[in-house]
Amino acid sequence: MTLLRDERLAAAFDHAARRYDALVAVNPGYHAHLRRSARRLGLPGEGRGLRVLDLGCGTGASTAALAAVLPEARITAVDASAGMLEKASAKRWPPGVTFTRAPVERLADAGVRGPYDAVFAAYLFRNVTDPDAVLATVRGLLAPGGRLGVHEYTLAGRRTDRAVWTLVCRGVVQPVAGALGDGALYRHLWRSVMEFDTAGRFADRLRTAGFEHVRRLPLPGWQTGITHTFVARRPRTERESGR
């Protein structure tokens, strides 16, 4: 199968939105891992006075993780899928959380403008057509010294990691999703991870995009070697980045 991109991917998420929360709920540690990645941003004071951008928020799982860790922050959550945003915005949220529909490639058109103190992106970068262009956009949205947190399926590179990922997808996720009519999206999920950067390659991609203090941190449980948190910082000055 070919990977789903842009409008086709957004349409697939629209179709899957009604059942999405139920499917991710059977993933052990899904929400706890997102909260762990949000904590790894290391933002102070429960986010008081800070602006945080949640890119690719889906039905709001990543937004909920940010709101739990940073209850005082102003959080702007963005997604390209109308169906996913409808599910997200129907939930109860603190006053500082707002939702905006926009593809990550056209944030300015939707009025999403920096500077942000932090950008968080969960399960986003392997789904975009041009990850480097998106990283450049994110860097421009961050305040000098602002932090980027990425929570993503990025295989460590061992054969066992690829084998476990394939077993989980083909043995559990795809049969259930197929029965619910969302098979194309979850076949895309398997392939998008297999074809995306390894964890080391994505860390290098962040450095090439001009981020500093890049850290690659594993997540526990069955996703060890499959899912990682990446934390990086926009340099405080252009001289720091060598640009």
TrEMBL record:
Keyword Flavoprotein assigned: no
CDD domains the record matches: AdoMet_MTases
Pfam family, one: Ubie_methyltran
Residues in coiled coil: none
GO molecular function terms listed in the Swiss-Prot or TrEMBL record: methyltransferase activity
Any one GO biological process: methylation
Domain of life: Bacteria
Keywords: Methyltransferase, Transferase
InterPro entries, alphabetized: SAM-dependent_MTases_sf
Protein name: Class I SAM-dependent methyltransferase
Provenance organism: Streptomyces virens
